[in-house]
Design a protein that fits this description.
This protein has 94 residues and is α+β, with helices and mostly antiparallel strands. It has 3 helices and 2 strands; from the N terminus they run αααββ. It is globular and about 40 Å long.
């Protein structure tokens, strides 16, 4: 969609270049959300760790750094703002 609209962006593949804990905290701050709000509960790592979405940021953020599949995607970041791209049109708000 961004290509079709000629919007420049940098794509980061979470699995090849995972976000570390500090980056995750920074993105969550920009999103204005807790880690539970971007948790993919259906990911196999969620089941393996018995995650319900009721866990604290201090529990979820290290797990998300270790298991990037736990993070909803895409997430768009521009400056001090960020949005979860579900639906993908949310990215246009940046």
């Amino acid at each position: 969609m961004l290509d079709e609209k000629n919007i420049a962006y940098r794509y980061r593949e979470y699995f090849e270049e995972p976000l570390d804990e500090a980056e995750l905290r920074n993105v969550l701050k920009k999103l204005g959300l807790r880690a539970a709000h971007i948790l993919r509960k259906r990911d196999k790592a969620a089941a393996a760790n018995n995650l319900t979405g009721d866990e604290s940021d201090d529990v979820l953020i290290p797990l998300m750094a270790e298991n990037p599949g736990l993070i909803q995607r895409p997430i768009g970041v521009k400056g001090n703002k960020a949005v979860v791209g579900r639906p993908v049109e949310n990215l246009l708000t940046l």
